[in-house]
Automatic annotation (TrEMBL):
It comes from the Bacteria. Its cofactor is FAD. The gene is adhD. Disulfide bonds join 46-51. InterPro entries: FAD/NAD-bd_sf (IPR036188), FAD/NAD-binding_dom (IPR023753), FAD/NAD-linked_Rdtase_dimer_sf (IPR016156), Pyr_nuc-diS_OxRdtase (IPR001100), Pyr_nucl-diS_OxRdtase_dimer (IPR004099), Pyr_OxRdtase_I_AS (IPR012999). Gene3D superfamilies: 3.30.390.30, FAD/NAD(P)-binding domain (3.50.50.60). FAD binds at residue 313. This is Dihydrolipoyl dehydrogenase. GO terms for molecular function: nucleotide binding; oxidoreductase activity, acting on a sulfur group of donors, NAD(P) as acceptor. It comes from Cellulomonas aerilata. Residues 8-328 form the FAD/NAD(P)-binding domain. Belongs to the class-I pyridine nucleotide-disulfide oxidoreductase family. Binds 1 FAD per subunit. Residues 349-453 form the Pyridine nucleotide-disulphide oxidoreductase dimerisation domain. NAD(+) binds at residues 205, 273.
């Protein structure tokens, strides 16, 4: 065993959104900080294989849709075929441009943080890590695990034949017949992308509905849209049994409604979950326990070993960039100044770029009614909004959920064009403590999608407040 040859106040493992934020914050607080990243570049899942590539593909899907309807505006477009090779090249060049703009290695260096790229870290003791490849040992007085997660193959026969989301860009062509297993945010977005590119898509989900954590009406509306677009949506699947190579493709077998089903596809994508990347991390050498694909933490983001924290996807809480940033901020502060900052996931807006888009913040209607069945709800269809009519995007709605005195906004959920931006605007109002009456008075530029917020707030106000029970 080599000797520990470098010591840091805070050692961060992983340079995705959580790791970079944690390192910069810890350095700002005066700590000597090192970051170990196993990949050859910073950015993590988000920039390299997740949000950024998916968003470029979503834009491509949107362009495809616009091209297909361009003739209704008098524009003749004859060629509607997609060149997958060009699309992939576009995704890769965009990822590079984002990396260039973020310029994280230079920002870390400027903050005095040592970035150790291209080495996976493995615990060899509670404070010590060994860097794969170099054998270098580093020590951290505090350690923040920002190792993120990765896709999961179902433990079934033939699972190796499946494509996982990180491999989608490696496909040789757009599949003619595609099965997507798992209708979370990843699966749903892949459905829209490949459906727009011309694949015949089947979506299989074990939960009773797609996008299960979303508001039930959001899930229903996206399901309707998928079905109208020709996607076969199968929810309540009992089990996916196997994949097998045949002469004509990959035969996929599943159980639903008490019966066995079988269909053949060119590609089967498994988007069935996102466990923490703890393989080979040597958590046992540090005494940190992991369970069910995550590293549990307390309210201060500490593991069961006091000086070891977790931020980002690896703790299995809200797996979003915005959550990674806020957890990183709290973990860095706690690591440097002592554990006083609680992680808060209050007001975490999120959404996905399907067609139509969907988004939400705060309590769903069902969650709000569980707390108080007399909470108030106003839903405004996009079809009643002029901007949506002008753009011929009438599908969708905004739903606002408020307390029974119609003062506090408890949640907001939307489907439709620009849903994520609309929900962001509501989130800003909620964060500022704006009450429903004030929101109802805000002027919205004409014609905008966000004007739906004012209409929904006025509808909430028009309802009689329910007296306290
Ligand atoms: C397809 C897809 C689309 C998404 N789209 C969105 C979106 O639109 N909006 C949104 O908010 N979120 C989105 N997400 C989620 C988002 O990508 C994650 O929440 C975010 O990347 C989490 O950041 P992180 O830093 O915790 O982990 P990651 O980004 O996964 O970074 C972890 C880093 O740790 C490194 N690492 C792991 N183990 C070790 C080790 N032992 N030693 C050294 N380094 C190690 C990895 O190489 C990686 O660089 C998407 C996810 C996917 C899969
Ligand atoms: N736009 C975004 O913000 C965005 C996009 C992608 C991912 N993410 C985040 O990344 C994380 C991972 O997302 P994800 O969608 O990859 O995973 P997920 O865990 O959110 O969803 C996996 C889905 O697969 C289903 N599933 C599991 N086993 C199955 C089986 N045997 N058969 C059929 N269905 C099965 C689950 O019920 C679930 O709906 C999430 O936290 C997500 O919020 C965010």
């Amino acid at each position: 065993m080599g000797a520990v040859n470098d010591t840091f106040d805070v050692l961060v493992i992983g340079a995705g959104p959580a790791g970079t934020s944690a390192a910069l914050r810890a350095a700002e607080l005066g700590a000597r900080v090192g970051v170990v990243e196993g990949g050859s570049r910073t950015g993590g899942t988000c920039v390299n294989t997740g949000c950024v590539p998916t968003r470029v593909l979503a834009k491509t899907a949107r362009l495809m849709r616009e091209v297909r309807t361009a003739d209704t505006y008098g524009i003749t477009v004859t060629e509607q075929a997609i060149s997958w090779r060009t699309t992939v090249a576009r995704v890769r060049s965009t990822v590079q441009r984002v990396l260039d703009v973020k310029d994280e290695p230079d920002r870390l260096a400027a903050a005095g943080v040592e970035l150790m790229l291209g080495h996976r870290a493995r615990f060899v003791g509670p404070h010590e890590l060994e860097l794969e490849g170099s054998g270098r040992r580093v020590r951290g007085e505090s350690i923040i695990l920002c190792v993120g997660g990765h896709s999961r193959r179902l433990p079934i026969p033939g699972a190796e034949l499946a494509t996982v989301p990180e491999q989608v860009l490696d496909l040789h062509e757009v599949p003619r017949r595609l099965a997507v297993i798992g209708a979370g945010n990843t699966g749903a977005q892949l459905v829209t992308i490949f459906s727009a590119f011309g694949s015949q898509v089947t979506l299989l989900e074990v939960a009773p509905r797609i996008l299960a954590p979303a508001d039930a009406d959001v899930s229903a509306e996206v399901t309707r849209a998928f079905t109208e677009q020709g996607v076969r949506v199968v929810t309540g699947v009992e089990t996916v049994e196997s994949l097998a190579r045949t002469d004509v493709g990959i035969a996929l077998t599943w159980q639903a409604g008490g019966e066995q089903h079988r269909a053949t596809f060119d590609v089967v994508v498994m988007a069935t979950g996102w466990p923490a990347s703890i393989e080979g991390l040597g958590l046992e050498a540090a005494g940190v326990h992991a369970e069910r694909g995550r590293i549990p933490v307390d309210e201060y983001l500490r593991t069961d070993v006091e000086h070891i924290y977790v931020a980002g996807d690896a703790d299995g809480e809200s797996m979003l960039v915005q959550a990674a940033h806020s957890e990183a901020e709290a973990a860095a502060r706690n690591a440097v100044l002592g554990a006083t900052r609680r992680a808060s996931h209050h007001l975490l807006p999120s959404g996905g770029f399907t067609d139509p888009d969907y988004a939400g913040v705060g309590l769903t209607e069902d969650q709000a009614r569980e707390r108080d069945r007399d909470c108030l709800v106003a839903t405004v269809p996009y079809a009643s909004m002029e901007r949506a009519i002008i753009d011929d995007r009438p599908r969708g709605f905004l739903k606002l959920v408020a307390d029974r005195r119609r003062e506090l906004l408890l949640g907001a959920h939307a489907v439709g064009e620009n849903a994520v931006e609309v929900i962001q605007a509501v989130t800003t109002a909620m964060a500022a403590g704006v009450d429903v009456a004030t929101l109802a008075k805000v002027e919205f530029a004409y014609p905008t999608y966000s004007a739906v917020i004012g209409v929904a707030a006025r509808r909430l106000l028009a309802q009689p407040a329910t007296p306290e029970g």
